[in-house]
């Protein structure tokens, strides 16, 4: 394992522990700030996510946004490929997807302009550390090559790290929204 891979693994382990503690303390953390941010983009196609494990829950903000325009969730097609995004509504039927995720029972793919991105850790420069599969990095690179794409990280405040160890392929976030604050880059 390279020094960078070791550093990322150590950062990920510490951040997951902080996230678990934050989630246990406030499992229904308020997505109000996320709703406020998304209100400025009403009608634009966007992607959220269905929270797994101890991820902060964006569903209230996604449901509100779905009343104004298309909302999608990520679909993993295969390893080392960009994500696709299928239309989501609060009452949509779901099926099991890879890595403990759920996806719409029937695919209705839409390309989002705004992505609410789950994460393990973030820093004040827009650095993001995910689970290590590179799905969002590949996806953001692909989307940003076509047009402006806004990436909003959604996390507990406790997931902030001093600095995220980054590689050239790591895509930056444009904004971080936590249960307490909004950071724009």
UniProtKB/TrEMBL annotation:
<dbReference type="GO" id="GO:0030272">
    <property type="term" value="F:5-formyltetrahydrofolate cyclo-ligase activity"/>
</dbReference>
<keyword id="KW-0479">Metal-binding</keyword>
<protein>
    <recommendedName>
        <fullName>5-formyltetrahydrofolate cyclo-ligase</fullName>
        <ecNumber>6.3.3.2</ecNumber>
    </recommendedName>
</protein>
<dbReference type="GO" id="GO:0035999">
    <property type="term" value="P:tetrahydrofolate interconversion"/>
</dbReference>
<dbReference type="GO" id="GO:0005524">
    <property type="term" value="F:ATP binding"/>
</dbReference>
<dbReference type="InterPro" id="IPR024185">
    <property type="entry name" value="FTHF_cligase-like_sf"/>
</dbReference>
<dbReference type="GO" id="GO:0009396">
    <property type="term" value="P:folic acid-containing compound biosynthetic process"/>
</dbReference>
<comment type="similarity">
    <text>Belongs to the 5-formyltetrahydrofolate cyclo-ligase family.</text>
</comment>
<dbReference type="GO" id="GO:0046872">
    <property type="term" value="F:metal ion binding"/>
</dbReference>
<dbReference type="Pfam" id="PF01812">
    <property type="entry name" value="5-FTHF_cyc-lig"/>
</dbReference>
<keyword id="KW-0067">ATP-binding</keyword>
<keyword id="KW-0436">Ligase</keyword>
<keyword id="KW-0460">Magnesium</keyword>
<dbReference type="InterPro" id="IPR002698">
    <property type="entry name" value="FTHF_cligase"/>
</dbReference>
<keyword id="KW-0547">Nucleotide-binding</keyword>
<dbReference type="InterPro" id="IPR037171">
    <property type="entry name" value="NagB/RpiA_transferase-like"/>
</dbReference>
């Amino acid at each position: 394992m390279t020094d960078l891979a070791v550093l990322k693994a150590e950062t990920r382990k510490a951040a997951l522990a902080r996230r678990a503690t934050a989630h246990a303390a406030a499992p229904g953390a308020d997505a109000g700030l996320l709703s406020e941010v998304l209100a400025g983009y009403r009608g634009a196609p966007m992607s959220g996510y269905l929270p797994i494990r101890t991820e902060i829950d964006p569903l209230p903000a996604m449901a509100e946004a779905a009343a104004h325009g298309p909302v999608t969730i990520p679909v993993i097609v295969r390893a080392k490929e960009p994500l696709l995004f299928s239309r989501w509504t609060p009452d949509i039927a779901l099926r099991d997807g890879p890595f403990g995720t759920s996806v719409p029972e029937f695919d209705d793919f839409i390309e989002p302009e705004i992505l609410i991105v789950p994460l393990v850790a973030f820093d004040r420069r827009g650095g993001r550390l995910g689970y290590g599969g590179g799905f969002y990095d590949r996806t953001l690179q692909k989307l940003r090559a076509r047009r402006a794409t806004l990436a909003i990280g959604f996390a507990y405040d406790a997931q902030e790290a001093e600095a995220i160890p980054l590689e050239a392929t790591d895509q930056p976030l444009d904004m971080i929204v936590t249960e307490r604050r909004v950071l724009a880059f």
